[in-house]
Write a structure and sequence with these properties.
By secondary structure, the protein is an alpha+beta fold. The protein is about 30% helix and about 15% strand.
Length: about 60
Amino acid sequence: MPKLKTNRGAAKRFKKTSTGRFKCSQSHLNHILTKKSTKRKRHLRNTEVVAEADTPSIRRMLPYV
């Protein structure tokens, strides 16, 4: 069986938690920030846990994580 390649884009975006789920940073915090409120930007800084339905596809992209 050949080695599997890790999806490098996914490897930069997702980290595995100790319980086996994946966490990622939230979107909408890169540009056009002047119209967004300070509260909205502050809440977008926090990481988010990926939905349970998306976890199998991320697990396939990151076989050795």
